[in-house]
Amino acid sequence: MSGKGTLAVGLALVAGVVLWSGRFGIDASWPLSNRQKARLASVQEGEVLMYCSESCPACDDARAWLDRHRVNYSACNVEDDELCATQAQALGVESTPTFVLRQGPQPRQLVGWDPSDFMAALGD
Predict the structure, then answer these.
(1) Which tens digits make up the pLDDT trace of 72-88?
(2) What's this model's pTM, rounded to 2 decimal places?
(3) Which parts form a coiled-coil structure per UniProt (predicted)?
């Protein structure tokens, strides 16, 4: 296969992955059902805490998604806030973003960012 042919196949594969991921809701723009929108709107102050850092692209993605969907959350930057870093360390947070979801009697942690995992952790 020529160099142009290889490039064309590579570009077609990339385009296919992009289209596939969008179709199945893997990216951050996946559509929300009315029930999911209602669940996000019902998040109370103090229910969602995100441990984040400035050098974290996934944190930026999470912040943008949460803001776009108007989710009530708090962000605690472990690089800029010593108290935040101490609290994160005490909880065993090893990477960002890590979410602490305070629902029910026991807080739960969600490590990493994926909108569908976040929705599942919220109980949707």
Answers:
(1) 999 999 999 999 999 99
(2) 0.74
(3) none
